Amino acid sequence: MSEQPSRTYGHAFGPDAPSKNLPFASSAKLTAVELLTFFPHCLRSPNVVYRFASNSGSRGVLWAIIANNRYLERNWAPNDCGRLVSQTMRQAGYTNWTITTHARWHRDRANWDKANLSVEGYKVPCQSYGAGSLAQSISFLELAAGVRTFPEGHDSLDLTRMVKYALEHSDGLWRYPYDYDVLLRLVGGPKTVEQAHWDESVFRRWEQKQAGPQMSITRPSVRKKVSFAIDDDPTIGCAEPERIGSIRNNHSNQQAQIMDEVSKTTLSKETNVSADENQALADDDCTPVVQPHIRKPPAFIPPPIPLNVATEAELELAFRETKSKAQTDKYSAYAFGGGPRTSPPYRQLHRIHSPESDDISVWAENLRWVAEQVKYFQGAYMWDESPEHMEIITDHRVRQEWMSEEYWEVYAQSEKDSNQGTNDSAPRRLRKERIVLQDVVPDTEKISEYLQCYGLGAFPPSGETFFGED
Q: From which domain of life does this come (predicted)?
């Protein structure tokens, strides 16, 4: 009589463990410790179990890595680990398979590459034997949930650095597996795989270790902590993961909620005129009433894939060489002279700090538009400050007549000042920093279209500043 699978073999991993049906990043190279630490349910993938068993993995070693590196919901013994991997392989068609008898099925032994850490082509349970359905992506930040000890030394390769980067930047925007290549570029690119990274070497080291006492996960939710970390970071400007729409889903079901939020914000912030003030203005035939501007709900615009995602080291070098005077932060909106960089390396727009509230330049408005995209739509963080991206954003804003709350506040104040005779050049003198429009949008026809949309007259002669005075 065949062994009946237990319902609890893999349930000790708790709610923080990523789904067993979370797809693998096809370009990733993952050490055995990274797989077991960040994806304990990888033991439900026949490809992973086959690889571990072919590289001298034992149930004791696999158990020790998970028990040492993760918080567990309940006691989980080596025998439970053995039953789990056996169940995985038998469901995939390996009748009566056990980890100790794996050699009977290892037909590729002669050509087996022990140095291969790639997970390309690896299948999850729903793809292998129809267990459930494919899970959606999760943030790299959430991969740290439930982790007790991070992989160290040769137990780690690339993924550990990426998860730590997301934690250090409180960044819940990067999604696994879809953003694997881009984030890997940000952390310096892939490391060279050495023999000490191979599964066989890893398992040999762990055979000498004793797993620490298993730790209960009866504690404040790690996922809640992750969400708070995102919300508390003022440079991210996004909602917590549960509130972010998916770039791969239809965004239409969000529009009613977004419209409600935008309308409330618009009416409360953009007019900046109380009911009493409006009545007083209405009683004065010489002074027009400032009407509230009702903004359209944001529409998701998928960003193009960046051609060159800059590393922190590249940006730091560029900042030291070309930074504007008195600037100390490379992510300031004015770090490179009050506008975007026009040559690599390019910063990602969602990382750049908000511009000054009275700055309604093309550059400042583009930053605010991206901040709104990031707030409502997951995937908008791929925009950067390259001329190509700047032109796409500006063109979209012009055609949609998109203006920020800050623009309308400044415009309303400048109109009021103009009517009172205190500002004879409204709304041109509206910002402290100056910017050459041609640095942002080289197409003169688009510049003229932009100027007409904003009611600012004809295109200025070449080289003249768009706002302010020299």
A: Eukaryota
- 176's enclosing H/E stretch is strand 175-176
Cβ atoms within 10 Å, residue 379: 21
Task: Say how many residues make up the chain.
Answer: 470
The answer to pTM > 0.85 is no
- What DSSP string runs through 206-262? HHT--PPPP-B--SS-HHHHHHHHHHT-TTT----GGGSBPTTS--GGGHHHHHHHH
Task: Record the tokens describing residue 108, joined without a space.
Answer: 């590729």
Count of CA atoms in the C-beta half-sphere (13 A) of 246: 12
**Burial class of residue 327 (count of CB atoms within 10 Å of its CB; 0-12, 13-18, 19+):** middle
The 10 Å Cβ neighbour count of residue 432 is 13
The whole-angstrom separation of Cα 92 and Cα 195 is 30
Contact of 331 with 347, CB cutoff 8 Å = yes
More confident residue, 73 or 240: 73
What DSSP state is assigned to residue 346? Answer: B
Query: Pairing state of beta strands 138-139 and 175-176?
Result: antiparallel
Mean pLDDT of 414-418: 70
The mean per-residue pLDDT over the stretch 157-170 comes to 90
Task: Return phi, psi of residue 138, to 5°.
Answer: -130, 165
